[in-house]
Amino acid sequence: MIKKIPRIGKLRSGELDLITDIAGITVGHCTLDQGAIQTGVTVIKPHCLDPYLHKVPAAATVINGFGKSVGLMQLDELGVFETPIALTNTFSVSSVAQAQIKQAITLNPEIGRAWPTINPLVFECNDGYLNDIQAMSITAEHYNTAYSQADRYMQQGSVGAGRGMSCFNLKGGIGSASRLVTLNHQQHYCVGALVLANFGILSMLTLAGQALGQQLAPCLQQMMSATEKGSIIMILATDAPLDYRQLKRLSLRAGIGLSRTGSFWGHGSGDIALAFSTAYTLPHDPEQPMPATAFIHETLLDPFFQAAAESVEQAIIHALYHAQAVQGRDNHQRYSLSELYPEWLI
């Protein structure tokens, strides 16, 4: 049977309806599925160059700061990042950050000596319900595996960093989507989203405007949670030439897509959005010229804001749709939405 996924919004999708519809972006996963160990690493590579030498313009919005990420302070100050973006579980941030540092030093031995240090960029969500997070199973090898597996044709659902994640008390994980923007009938751009979805209360779940959680909740009382204890990381990318301030505005619109699914950004939820552009890079070497970039005019940003909201909402739905049921620590289990909601089957 073919599963029909609800389609969000009015804008057209890219070829794959993934963040990797933007040229140069690749995504890789390393998944640990070993009994009580249900976790992993996901790596987003913004381009095929060395990101330390060719830094990527970016900005972030902390919607709710219940999180333990690494690298956001310097990113906010300088408006760039200089490693791939890594996603993992809360207790593995330090090991993944060390892996990023070692990788960068291998490529550029003068880092931390004649050259400045490196700013690793790692985001996290707490997968401790399904995963034995105290085991701290993630190592540099897992980061390196995810990095080496990066590809345009990425997987979604219970993979990589999403392996042990829960969403609306169901199985969550990795989701992605893209939307196309056309300006003046001649300038064509793409906005893509990738989410690590680990948030929400089942009764609040809203699917394409439908209060689905209210239908499912009475049948699944044993799965219900009274408080919002999860998190979500939302990564937005675009090939449009936007500056730091414009990217900051774009990242904020990720919250629109998040709220449409039924999130109210609860006390225990860490909700962070990062937006970056692949239209140009900034050189590490001060002897190299800075890019002469003609940015999108401020009054033309509305379609990008719409694309951000649509792609994030769609990415969350994709995470729920593609996730498979997982049983992990102490026999804890999360069911997949597609199993519980057979009306998706046609």
From TrEMBL:
SUPFAM superfamilies: DmpA/ArgJ-like
Highest taxon listed in the record's lineage: Bacteria
GO molecular function: aminopeptidase activity
Pfam families according to UniProt: Peptidase_S58
InterPro entries: ArgJ-like_dom_sf, Peptidase_S58_DmpA
Region forming the signal peptide: none
Family: Belongs to the peptidase S58 family.
UniProt name for this protein: S58 family peptidase
Organism listed in the record: Candidatus Schmidhempelia bombi str. Bimp
